[in-house]
Amino acid sequence: MRLIRRLTGKVRRLTNSLYLIATCDVFGRLRALLTERAKPKGDLMVIEEHLTHQEIAGRIGCTREMVSRIMRDLVTGGYIDTDHHILVRKELPQSW
Q1: What's the topology of domain 25-96?
Q2: CA quadruple 14, 32, 29, 50: dihedral sign
Q3: Which of 13, 30, 57, 76 has its CA 20 to 30 A from that of 20?
Q4: How many Cβ atoms from other residues are within 10 Å of residue 77's Cβ?
């Protein structure tokens, strides 16, 4: 039963990933990834997993340059900080 639950969970995550790739733009996929990975820590949401822009790009199906551009805009807008971990300071916008 444990194996079936794990496989079912993986299939659900893959199906969700394919749905996002097919229906969302790059910003929507990045927003979904950041929201999914962020864990509450005090008043902020923190992504403690070290993710490079290249790894993020590979996960959401785009180029590293596009991830860098969007992340820079999110930092400039005060939505996130990227010092050691990714800190989500406020809810990410619906569109870029």
Answers
A1: Arc Repressor Mutant, subunit A (1.10.10)
A2: negative
A3: 76
A4: 13
